[in-house]
Structures are given as C-alpha cells and as structure tokens.
Amino acid sequence: MVAMICxxxxxxxxxxxxxxxxxxxxxxxxxxxxxxxxxxxxxxxxLVRSYGLANIPFRVANTPQTRFKIASVTKLFTSVLIxxxxxxxxxxxxxxxKTYLPDYPGxxxxxxxxxQLLNHTSGLPSFDAIIDQATALREGMPIYQLPHTSDQLLxxxxxxxxxxxxxxxxxxxxxxxxxxxxxxxRLCGQPYEQVLKERILDPLHMTDSGVLHHGDIVDRLxxxxxxxxxxxxxxxxxxxxxENWYAAGAMYSTTGDLLKFAHALFGGQLIAPATLDRMIKPxxxxxxxxxxxxxxTVKGVRHPVIKRPGLIMGTQAQFFHVxxxxxxxxxxxxxxxxxxxxxxxxxxxxxxx
Length: 353
Fold this sequence. Notes:
- The chain has about 350 residues and is of the alpha+beta class.
- Helix content is about 35%, strand content about 20%.
- The chain has helices spanning about 1-30, 75-85, 115-120, 135-140, 140-145, 150-155, 175-190, 190-200, 245-250, 255-265, 275-280, 340-350; strands at about 35-40, 45-50, 55, 60, 70, 210, 225, 235, 250-255, 290-300, 300-310, 315-320, 325-335.
- The chain has a 6-stranded antiparallel β-sheet, sandwiched between helices.
- β7 (about 225) and β8 (about 235) form a beta hairpin.
- The model is unreliable at about 5-10 (pLDDT under 50).
C-alpha cells in the first residue's frame, strides 16, 4: 500500500514537472524570453531550462552555467549578513545607525534604526533620482555612470535629510542597503564583498557568484539588453559602474548557485530558524528584511511565499520560495522583454498544483 502511494505521488510530481516545463517553454517562445529558469520541488525533483542568448552579436547561447547579474537579489545576501551579526550579538536591530557608524554625516544617524534600514522604512531619500527611462536616456545616470567608492556613496547619496518619519512609510530605497553594507564593513573590518565571500559564498561553494566591478572580465557573464524606447528593438544597456549598486545590487550568480543559497537559507545553515521567521515576517507593503513575504492563492488555498526580485535595465532576476510546499524558483534573465513578477507567480501556481 505504501509503495502504491509513493508511486502515485511520483506520477503526480512528474505530471507537475511536465506541466511547468510545457508552460515555460511555450512562454519563452511566445515572449522571446532570454535567461535561465530553475524549479525545485520538495523531493529534489528539478526543472532546469535555458533560453535565448548570453551575447547577441556572437550568438552565444544561455545555459545553466551562464552567470547573470542579479541586481537587488543582492539585498537578500546583505540582509543575511546583518542578521548573522545580530545572532552574534554584534548588532542590535533597534539601535540607530550612529551606534555602528559614529561618523555617519546625516540626520538619520541618530533617528533611523538598523531594522528600519532592513525593511525600507528609514525615511532616507532615494538616490535613484531617475524618474523614467526617457530621463535616463536624455540626462544619463550620473550616480551609476561615474565611478564612486562605497565611502562616496555613503557620504554623497545615502546621508541626506529624511523625507519621512522613520518607521512610518515604506519607501524602497537602495540607500538603505548602502548604509547596511558600510555597517557590515565597519564591524567586520573587511570590504563588504570579502565578508560576503567568507561568510556565504565560500562556505556554500557558490563558485559562480561574486560582486561585479566595471573593470573586471567575468567568465560566462551574460550581457544584458533592454528596450530603450518604444520601438521594442533590443539595445545594449547604458554603460554603468555596477559596483555603484554596492550591497544593494552589485552581485552576479547562476541559478544553481542561488539554489545552494536557498537550501542554506531555508535549511538553517545561514541563520537560525527563529531569525528566518523574523526576517520573513511581513511589515509595510508586505516587506520583511530584504524580501517580500505574502500569500499566493492557488485554487482557493493560500500559500505563504517569499519573493526577492531584481531589475536593472535588461537584468531581470527572481528568487522565489513557496514556504509550505518547499518549492524554490530561480529566474535569471538578461533582457527587459517580460514581466518577471507575473511569470514567477504563474510558474509557482503550476508547480504547486
């Protein structure tokens, strides 16, 4: 009887995998999707698919080994590093910035707590002053198109006057995570990326992940392309210094490496289960500490999920986990041709059934 039940479960999961595969293949073909997608179910079954080109002029295909920029998925790593320091007793989330950065120049230093940086309720002004794509094309993006050190990012762009009372409003803001990156550096006495490497990447053998720098050539890194106007013709992205996104968005990775990270995060290897519970507890805008946490309804049943998207011009990344079904979905793309938020939810709904 037990063997029969196991056989039925396996057959059902195989049908789910095939349904997800068919949907993703059809979607990719219809929408010219370019990137890699990985879905893993609770029993270890996987769907791994790659589409499109990592480099259009040379016709280099995307593969599961292709490295992609992951944009704001970086914030999830920064959040974990902060929470590790909390567990070690080196950070109190209710203390203000100046406790850890005594020379912080802005008024937020004595008013904004570490928790408010994590959940984007600091009230710090956003230094992403670009209102829309047309403005970026016309005026450029000086903060990203000119070189800046992390100290300059902190002093010039992450320490202005507050635009709202701390804790009152959700305001998604890269400045919050620049400050968090500098706190990590100050407490650990090492550059952010070295702390990242020693505390997460090396222990998890994430050998295809790291922090991008304008002058570095990264093997197997996909170029990114976007639609710079209404003509819907893919073009190269605007030239930028990717390190200027710092602890808020400067990383690259692969679907396989991000799956390792997911296993470690949800398996208690990086932070304790109680800390994870705090991390994913939704606050304003259903945002926790570096991720969105909400309920996804499938056939009338509500499933708790976490989502950490990343979007910079042509870069589209999604780190998605269905908590009660232990299903992980990683999407990494290099063109701005789709709505990745909608797609990852559509995949999740089919993976749950």
